Amino acid sequence: MVLLSLAYHSLKNRKLTTTLTVFSIALSIALLIGVENVRVGARQSFEGTISQTDLIVGARGGSLQLLLYSVFRIGQATNNITYESYLKFKNHPAVEWTIPYSLGDSHRGFRVVGTDENFYKHLRYRRDRSLSFASGHEPRGVFDVALGADVARALNYKTGDKVVITHGVASAAGRGIQDHNDKPFTVCGVLNKTSTPVDRSLYIQLEGISAVHIDWADGAPPMPGEEVPAEKITKDTVKIDQITSFLLRNKRRIDTLRVQREINTFSEEPLQAILPGVTLQELWRTIGYAEDALTVVTFFVIVVGLLGMLVSLYTSLNERRREMAILRAIGAGPGKIISLLVFESFLLTVAGCVLGVGLIYGASFLFQPVVEEHFGLYIPVQAPTPTGLIYLGAVLAASLLIGFIPAWKAYRNTLSDGLTPKL
Amino acid sequence: MRIALVFLLAVSLGAQTRQRKAHEHGSAKVNIAFESVKSAPKGVIEFEAPAESITGFEHEAKSAADKAKQTAALTTLKARFAEMVVFPAAAACKITNKSAKVEAEDHGHDKKSKTKQEQHSEVHAEFDVQCAKPLTGAVLTFGFAKVFPKIHDADVALIAGDLQLSVEVKTGKETLRIEAK
Q: Quick check: A127 contacting B, CB < 8 Å?
């Protein structure tokens, strides 16, 4: 108790130095916990890109490739799959729902995805979040298009605007193989931001993909005079004969392995079904160097923070040589002097930890929407992770150890200084 | 003409089905699925490995010695699977074998080819798993190499409700914690 009182009054006597030291430690701790939260948040954001989907099915090839083009809209499929095979698994007794994707067209650098109403109804991300519209509604007509939030913002589109999609993948400047000028789409809705790849695509109906290619032959646009006008195209006049991939949800999770095996050994067409969660983790392990880099940064943040505290305590010793000398004169033994300084460094670190954690959680709470909006990174405000708690414990333990260095120095000073330290 | 069409169709169908499954000696694959990890979880486990890693050979077991070796290996797999995929004792899980067999990869018969075709076969096994206690937060450990020293790595995937997890077991020290990361 005496030790606590002495430490408190001593620190209070040096308000400015104490405040600066605590603030310096707090900043290090805030950075430490912040980096850890970003690391965990980035991982959770990544793994939460798609939820409640048991399988992703596409043409046989690499599992990562299938995940990349189906979920992240990166790269292309090596092959499409027939609509007939898709319907076979859509109507499978064990399957609850499917979401078809038809890729291949684009608009000013953004992918155009052909899908159906199940996309808006069943797609989940970050465990149980569903899609919703900021304005308008999902595509109902063949030439309706819904926009991801980033597309609408980047191109400044709103409901009612006309959009011409490009055959193939166009550059951001809009240069593609061929524009489907004769069959423009009308923006019917804009999706709310999800901070997932959903935000960076345009969504039309599966029939829309077929409709823009209805008069194409052998991969080439129609000859003049052979075009089919958009007004003559209805859902009944277009035929869907292929899609790129589909998401699948079973009625029971336990059936997933069985359905996956059925798809992977499907004799009518070479198909491949992957577990999205497992493949996402594989991908994360592949690109996990970024996580390692953040861990290294975290380590250096701790070292710098602790060194800052050491420097602060060490330099403050000079102004405290008289205080130490008096303590020795009134009977404080070496143990007491060392304990006092070690305890002080511990107190400073505890105060720094509390302030730092408060700072980072306050900042996270305030800036979470801004970070999500501008960087697409959803960092959940949640209790410190076990790793974060280990870091805090390690910092506190290290502060006790570090406290011994100035403590030992103070003790040595008191021996040489006596009651008349030369300041 | 009709015969030619039938021939072309047969050739094209043959081409489509002529695919080889990846086959890597020393690598096993384990898939585990639970409907839920709450209350008394019930699940299935699929195990797949090249026969060479389990029985020691991949040719068809014709001799009495090979047949005995194969039977013994499959008996070990059935009896000691709980040592390969280890559930925490607190969950009181019971693993029951449903099937275990050696399946040869069908290469078809190319009578014209005089070169000897490489033959592969795989061991496929299925198990039921019934636990008495919830598996939330449970940590699975693995001991593939202890039972079959020729298994050097295993890809383990686990589905538990909406959770999909995976781990690549190489040293035998890897674990799989059943909870959202």
A: yes
